[in-house]
C-alpha cells in the first residue's frame, strides 16, 4: 500500500503551492528553491498520471483534479500538524487563546480556581490583543479560544455561548457628581473609547436613537475595554464598559454608572474549538467549569435594552 503513495515532500510542495497559487510563495514558505517546488509538482503529476495545474504564462491555476486533491491534502496535513503539536506539548496542557479584557476581568481568576482542582493538569492561557477577536486553529498553537463574536463561525468549528455583551457608560464617582446624567450631560463629557474606531459608543448611542446627540468621534482612544474602564476609574472621562465585567468595580465604588442604561450588542463571549483537531480531554471539563462560573451582572435599577 505504501509503495503506491507519492513522496510526502512532493505532496507537501503541491499543497502549499495550491494554497497560495504561487510556486514562489511556496518555495519561500518551505525554505526551498522555486525550481525545487516545480520539480516536486511535476514528479507528483507524473506519479498520478494527470495534470494538477494549468500553466498559462505566469498565471497558475488548479485543474479540477488538482483542486480536489488540494482540498483533501489540506485536511490531511492539518491533522498531521495537530497530531505532532499534541505530541510535542506537555501532557495535560490545554492551550487557550483569549482577548485581554475578559482575561483580566474574569477568565484568569476562573481558570486559577479550575487549575486548583485538577492536580497535574493545567491550562496554558495566552492573552492576545485583537481588533476583531479571531483564532487560526491551522497556524496558531491553540486547542480552543474564548472570543467575542456574533456567533458566525466557520462550519468546522464547535462553539458554546458563555454570556452576552451589554454595554453601559462608566466613570469615576468624582466625574459623575451627585446626580445621574442625561444624554445632554453626556454630550459635554470627555469620552473614552475602548476601540480605535469608536464602535462601542456608536453602538450604544444608535441603539437608543441618540446617534446624533453626542459627537462620538471625539475623545481619547484605547485598544481594549480593559484600558477604557481603567482610564474611566482613574477619573479621565466616561468610557463604555461591559456590564458583565464591572461587578467588582461597581461594588467597591471605583466605577459608577452615570446613565443607567445597558445595551445588548448582539455579540457574546464564546468558547470555540475546531472539529478538525482532536478534542483535548480537558476541554469538556473547562467548558463546564466556565459555564458554571459566568459573571453575575448587577441589573438592579438598570434599563436593559435588547
Description:
With 306 residues, this protein is an alpha/beta fold. It folds into 3 domains: 2-88, Arc Repressor Mutant, subunit A (Orthogonal Bundle), CATH 1.10.10.10; 93-164 and 267-291, D-Maltodextrin-Binding Protein, domain 2, CATH 3.40.190.10; 166-265 and 299-305, 3-Layer(aba) Sandwich (D-Maltodextrin-Binding Protein, domain 2), CATH 3.40.190. 39% of the residues lie in helices and 22% in strands. The protein contains 11 helices and 11 strands. The protein has helices at residues 8-20, 23-30, 34-48, 64-88, 100-115, 173-176, 183-187, 199-207, 225-233, 247-252, 283-291, and strands at residues 53-56, 59-62, 93-98, 122-127, 144-149, 157-170, 191-193, 220-221, 238-242, 261-274, 303-305. Strand 3 (93-98), helix 5 and strand 4 (122-127) form a beta-alpha-beta unit. Helix 1 (8-20) crosses helix 3 (34-48) and helix 2 (23-30) packs across helix 3 (34-48). It is elongated and about 80 Å long.
Amino acid at each position: 500500500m505504501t509503495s503506491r503513495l507519492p513522496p510526502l515532500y512532493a505532496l507537501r510542495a503541491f499543497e502549499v503551492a495550491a494554497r497560495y497559487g504561487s510556486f514562489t510563495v511556496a518555495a519561500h514558505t518551505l525554505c526551498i528553491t522555486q525550481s525545487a517546488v516545480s520539480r516536486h509538482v511535476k514528479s507528483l503529476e507524473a506519479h498520478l498520471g494527470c495534470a494538477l495545474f494549468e500553466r498559462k504564462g505566469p498565471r497558475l491555476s488548479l485543474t479540477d483534479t488538482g483542486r480536489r486533491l488540494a482540498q483533501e491534502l489540506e485536511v490531511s496535513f492539518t491533522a498531521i500538524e495537530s497530531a505532532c503539536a499534541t505530541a510535542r506539548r506537555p501532557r495535560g496542557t490545554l492551550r487557550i487563546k483569549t482577548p485581554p479584557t475578559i482575561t483580566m476581568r474574569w477568565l484568569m481568576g476562573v481558570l486559577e480556581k479550575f487549575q486548583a482542582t485538577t492536580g497535574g493538569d493545567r491550562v496554558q492561557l495566552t492573552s492576545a490583543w485583537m481588533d476583531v477577536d479571531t483564532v487560526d486553529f491551522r497556524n496558531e498553537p491553540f486547542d480552543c479560544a474564548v472570543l467575542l463574536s456574533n456567533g458566525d463561525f466557520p462550519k468546522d468549528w464547535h462553539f458554546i455561548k458563555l454570556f452576552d455583551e451589554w454595554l453601559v457608560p462608566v466613570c469615576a464617582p468624582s466625574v459623575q457628581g451627585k446626580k445621574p446624567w442625561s444624554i445632554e450631560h453626556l454630550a459635554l463629557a470627555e469620552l473614552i473609547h475602548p476601540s480605535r474606531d469608536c464602535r462601542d459608543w456608536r453602538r450604544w448611542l444608535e441603539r437608543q436613537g441618540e446617534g446624533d446627540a453626542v459627537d462620538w468621534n471625539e475623545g481619547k482612544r484605547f485598544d481594549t475595554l480593559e484600558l477604557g474602564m481603567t482610564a474611566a476609574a482613574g477619573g479621565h472621562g466616561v468610557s463604555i464598559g461591559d456590564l458583565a465585567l464591572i461587578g467588582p468595580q461597581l461594588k467597591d465604588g471605583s466605577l459608577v454608572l452615570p446613565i443607567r442604561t445597558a445595551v445588548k450588542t448582539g455579540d457574546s463571549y464564546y468558547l470555540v474549538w475546531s472539529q478538525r483537531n482532536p478534542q483535548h480531554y480537558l476541554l469538556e471539563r473547562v467548558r463546564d467549569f466556565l459555564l458554571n462560573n459566568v459573571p453575575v451582572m448587577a441589573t438592579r435599577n438598570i434599563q436593559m435594552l435588547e
